[in-house]
Design a protein that fits this description.
Elements lengths: L1 H24 L2 H19 L6 H4 L27 H37 L1 H16 L2 H11 L4 H9 L4 H15 L2 H8 L4 H37 L10 H10 L2 H4 L2 H29 L1 H7 L1
Length: 299
């Protein structure tokens, strides 16, 4: 019986996943964002195959200082003679890693807080919502800067600083969804049959909020990448790791703006815009799929 019920459940999930993909595929902007995102991720993953540590080294650079684009250096060189193209491609690894990890941490905290607040209610909800309101009214970037200055420099610090300061909006969204789900009759039946809090939360509430959480995660990655670039630009990132924000900071510090070295400024800036736009297009398409009200409005 349990095996048959499990097969039925998996069949339903496969059908739901197939319907989700078909609805997502109806959005041209979502498909464009997904294609661009997959291309950027593939390039970032394959970057070590043709970019070595020597290519990123200031000591072993072979190009001239701030030379314009040429046949040898397609996007010119930086202040140390390194290829801007190599730096931009390799910088995608750090920016994507920090953005995705920070978004997952942020959405994870927000999902847990929102589910617990919506499920238990009363004093638990009151305490969790007051904590959420506290983080919500304070500027997330200011809190991230404060944490980055107090903790040791490194990617883990950046991820932690962004993740623990940007979860309140997710918590409120998940709490509202949890309250809606727990008002449905099948939750009451599960409770009548002896289902405890872990059973209700993990077997019923969590699967129901996952599509919304997934869409919110996709949108949160773009915000996390912008936050990482901002922190790196302010000098709070890891100076030993190439990232787009660090490239912009170095370009500003070395006088590339006054020297007219546009090839040093534009590539990392365009890369940030392209990645954030790709995640935003995917997130908006998923949001329309999982939110019936938005779907009806689009039609």
């Amino acid at each position: 019986m349990s095996t048959g019920a499990g097969r039925i459940a998996w069949a339903r999930r496969r059908r739901a996943a197939g319907k989700l993909w078909r609805d997502f595929a109806d959005s041209r902007s979502g498909l464009v964002g997904l294609a661009a995102l997959l291309g950027i991720v593939l390039i970032a993953l394959l970057a070590p195959l043709w970019i070595s540590a020597d290519d990123l080294s200031v000591i072993k650079a072979t190009g001239g200082i701030l030379t314009p684009p040429s046949g040898e250096f397609w996007l010119g060189t930086d202040h140390a003679g390194r290829s801007v193209l190599d730096l931009t491609v390799y910088g995608a690894r750090v920016s994507l890693l920090v953005g995705i990890a920070a978004a997952v941490l942020s959405v994870g905290i927000g999902t847990i807080v929102g589910m617990l607040s919506g499920h238990f209610g009363r004093w638990v909800s009151a305490v969790l919502m007051r904590v959420t309101d506290f983080f919500l009214v304070l500027p997330a970037l200011v809190l991230a800067i404060a944490l980055s200055t107090m903790l040791e420099r490194g990617l883990s610090t950046i991820i932690l600083a962004i993740g623990v300061t940007s979860w309140p909006s997710t918590a409120r969204l998940v709490r509202a969804q949890t309250l809606t789900i727990e008002a449905r009759p099948y939750i009451e039946r599960a409770q009548a049959l002896g289902g405890g809090h872990p059973h209700i939360l993990l077997r019923h509430v969590l699967p129901a909020v996952l599509p919304l959480v997934l869409a919110n995660t996709t949108l949160a990655v773009g915000s996390a990448i912008i936050s990482e670039s901002t922190l790196a630009f302010l000098g709070l990132g890891d100076p030993s790791k190439v990232s787009w924000g660090l490239m912009l900071k170095q370009a500003l510090d070395t006088g590339s703006v006054t020297a007219g070295a546009w090839w040093y400024l534009l590539p990392p800036g365009i890369a940030i815009v392209a990645v954030v736009l790709s995640f935003t297009l995917c997130g908006r398409a998923l949001e329309i799929v999982v939110n019936p009200n938005l779907k009806a409005g689009r039609r």
